[in-house]
Every structure is written in C-alpha cells, then in structure tokens.
User: Fold this.
Amino acid sequence: MPLPQAELGDAENILVKAEGNALRFSIQWNLINESTSVVTSNVGGDPTGAGPAIDSSKYASGTINKADEMAQFLVDEFQCKGVEYKFQIIIPAEPGVTNAMARFGTIEKLSLTKAGRSPVTWRANMSFVAGDLVTVGT
Assistant:
C-alpha cells in the first residue's frame, strides 16, 4: 500500500511503498473552545516548554484556545512534513492501571470535519503509526 510521506506539507506528498507489520493508533476527538491555551512550547526539546512556539500574528494573543484556532494549528503547524520529524503518542492510563501506553512514530493521517457555526463543532481524526523512523541520505 502506498503511504504518503509529505516533505513540504500535504501539497507535496511523496508516495512510498511499504509493507509489513504495523501498529496504528486511530484517535478521534472534538475540538471545542477552551478557557486556556491547548498548545505549549517545547522549543529545543525543553520539557518545561520554555520559549515561543505560538505565532501571535496568526493566533490572537499567542494562545490557541478556540476551536477554529486549534483546527488551523493542526493543519498549519502540526501535520507531519517529513520522516525526520519524530512524534511520541502517550495514552494516559485509566485509574487502577499502572502504566500509560507510549510509542514513538509518526502521524500517518490527520483529518478535520467542521459542522455548524455557533457553536462551531470540529471533529479531528488522527492515525499514528508506531515505529523507528529511519532515513537514508547521500
């Protein structure tokens, strides 16, 4: 099955044939207006989130807390733009379960659906494939 490997966003997809065992997570959630920003910075891998990550010319007051802003962030900033980008998905444990489930890999697919105007309702779907990302350079 050909898999898109976007190097410059979705408009520049490169299809790569890949087969074999795969672990995929499919996650669906609703984007709703929040009282605080849902995005924090992780500049330079700093776990405290130090440094600017949100472009205040795009997002009012440097926060992302409205459903439309969240959708824009997912499309403009969050989509995978190449195999050199490594993501980690962490699914928190339920009460009574010792460990959260965590895997490294990449975002295979991200889709958004919008319904209504007031209140705006966005539905996000993400497919995440777990694995070690390997690139071959010259």
Remarks:
- The longest strand covers residues 101-115.
- The helical segments are 67-78.
